[in-house]
Design goal:
With 100 residues, the chain is of the alpha/beta class. 41% of the residues lie in helices and 24% in strands. β2, α2 and β3 form a beta-alpha-beta unit. The termini are far apart.
């Protein structure tokens, strides 16, 4: 079975503390290709996982997700940002997993 290529949007406390460690342990199922966060320092955590960092949600949606992610986008946005970012993510017609 082919691995699912995944872009994580949101590398804050929950992204770094919960999502990334689980994704890293499940390399038989997932390939992390990009991590995006509006904080450039937080986005750089991608490099620890062999993924590309993005400091703009718009950039990760228009570039990384379109080019690399065959199946899933994982959005870990603050609740007040979900209504803005979710429609942008849906434009690429990929599966979206939102957890906040």
């Amino acid at each position: 079975m082919a691995r699912i290529r995944l872009a994580l949007i949101g590398a804050g406390r929950r992204g770094r503390g919960a999502h990334l460690p689980v994704i890293a342990r499940m390399t038989d199922r997932f390939e992390l290709v990009a991590v995006g966060d509006v904080d450039p320092e937080a986005a750089r955590v991608a490099e620890q996982y062999g993924a590309r960092p993005y400091a703009s949600v718009g950039e990760i949606i228009s570039n990384a997700v379109r080019e690399y992610c065959n199946d899933v986008r994982n959005g870990g946005f603050p609740s007040d940002a979900e209504s803005y970012h979710t429609p942008q993510m849906a434009k690429g017609r990929k599966t979206i997993f939102i957890e906040s």
